[in-house]
Prior knowledge:
Number of helices: 7
Order of helices and strands: HHHHHHH
Helix content: over 70%
Largest sheet: none
Amino acid sequence: xxxxxxxxxxxxxxxxxxxxxxxxxxxxxxxxxxxxxxxxxxxxxxxxxxxxxxxxxxxxxxxxxxxxxxxxxxxxxxxxxxxxxxxxxxxxxxxxxxxxxxxxxxxxxxxxxxxxx
Length: 117
């Protein structure tokens, strides 16, 4: 649920930074809409989910905040090499997601095959 929290708070942050809503489009890149699309979700639905998962979400948020602070530190220091390293390290999520997608696809194909028998 961390992506949901991130989306809500990214939307909140941009609204705080740019009070003139017309200028948000200048501040935001083309990927902004897809990044914050989750922020359009119902708070009535998500508040109880966050409450139920508060313990785990709290731990994940602390880790996320630590990474944000580290990124901010290197950005302010102008340490492009370290920023690049952080982004490269984060790119490893592709391998994980590709594995999950592959496993899901294999399970779906297996289920379809079993249903045909």
